[in-house]
Amino acid sequence: MITSKAILKTEIPGQQPVRGKVRDIYDLGDKLLIVATDRISAFDVIMANGIPDKGAVLTNISLFWLEWLGDSVKNHLISTNVDDFGPPFTEHKEQFVRRSMLVKKAKVLPIECVVRGYLAGSGWKEYQQSQTICGHKLPEGLQQCGKLSEPIFTPATKAELGEHDENISFERAVDIVGIEAANYVRDKSIEIYVRAAEYAAGRGIILADTKFEWGFDDNEEIILIDEVLTPDSSRFWPADKYEPGRDQQSYDKQFVRNYLESIHFDKKPPGPELPSDVVAGTRQRYVEAFEKLSGKKFE
After folding, report:
1. Which tens digits make up the pLDDT trace of 131-144?
2. Secondary structure of 117-152 in HEC code, one letter for each residue
3. Confidence bin at 161 (pLDDT 50/70/90)
4. In sequence order, what are the residues at sequence separation of 6 or more whose Cβ sits closer than 8 angstroms to the Cβ of residue 116?
5. Could you tell me if 108 and 18 are in contact, meaning their C-beta atoms sit under 8 angstroms apart?
6. What DSSP string runs through the chain?
7. Which terminus of the chain is more solvent-facing, meaning fewer CB atoms within 10 Å of its CB: N or C?
8. Planar angle of CA 159, 274, 299, nearest 5 degrees
9. What pLDDT is attached to residue 109?
10. Measured between alpha carbons, how far is 152 from 150 in angstroms, rounded to an integer?
11. What is the topology classification, in CATH, of domain 109-241?
């Protein structure tokens, strides 16, 4: 039973955040305050109602992975303690607790760093047309959601709100961010994916693919930013239900997408109100992903 209410946006007197599909971001000068709301989007359209606790689950999954990665990868996190956010945010704790991160400001690399271990989503669509993904030539006869012989780096451009990311080749990524940065984020993204996929497998979860964001800090070092290995940035599948050749059950918003397809949603704003069973089912999947991965109970 869901007892908490969805937080669709944060509202602080005198403050105007930048609102993305899910996050409210407050600019604090040399820092950012990133708040994961309970908004949910599908097909790049924000739905009329949210998923209670979704922002808290996403934030805590990211925090779990950042701690798990330890010092092997530098990241932007400063604090999750609301008392460290300062006024006026500390006066409105109820909007921020468990769903917020105070982070270093970074110069964001303008590419999405996607790593795929399985053939799904836009990768599967491209493979069907050209037998390639982002310039990677793949063997004939691969199945939908089939495992690739090794993970591949498939970057994409960053889309504006309401638009779709566009898959690009590694060469195009080099043109955008330079050879040194492109090599680094490719190698690090694949390294993290391989480690995380191995860990998730031990928890009964397949990490099919994931998307990382990177940026330059004040010392011109590349650091990991934004959310990390969450159901919003990754495809997590229950290993015991996995079967190549079809769509998979997943710990993400596929439940919402399936509902929208069933009502023939035209994929244009405004998003519809999601029925209570879809809201509850989606929340359950997010919570289950956190609990299986972290080994902790979501309270």
Report:
1. 999 989 999 999 99
2. EECCHHHHHHHHHHCEECCEECCCCCCCCCEEEEEE
3. low
4. 123, 133, 148, 151, 152, 154, 208, 209
5. no
6. ---SPP------TT--PEE-SSEEEEE-SSEEEEEE-S--EETTEE-SS--TTHHHHHHHHHHHHHHHHGGGS-B-EEE--GGGT-TTGGGGGGGTTTTEEEEE--EE-SEEEEEEEE--HHHHHHHHHHSEETTEE--TTPPTTPEEEEEEE--EEPPPTTS--EE--HHHHHHHH-HHHHHHHHHHHHHHHHHHHHHHHTTTEEEEEEEEEEEE-TTS-EEEES--S-TTTEEEEEGGG--TTS----SSTHHHHHHHHHTT--S-SSPPPPPHHHHHHHHHHHHHHHHHHH-S---
7. N
8. 90
9. 97
10. 6
11. D-amino Acid Aminotransferase; Chain A, domain 1 (3.30.470)
What residues does each domain of the chain span? 109-241
Q: Which of 256, 255, 252 is nearest to 272 (CA)?
A: 256
Residues composing the chain = 299
The single residue listed with the structure tokens 């959601």 is: 145
How many angstroms separate the CA atoms of 68 and 64, rounded? 6
* Region 152-180 average pLDDT: 87
With a pLDDT cut of 90, the percent of the chain lying above it is: 90
pTM: 0.93
pLDDT tens string 9-51: 999 999 999 999 999 999 999 999 999 999 999 988 999 999 9
pLDDT band (50, 70, 90) for residue 4: confident
Cα–Cα dist 213/185, whole Å: 9
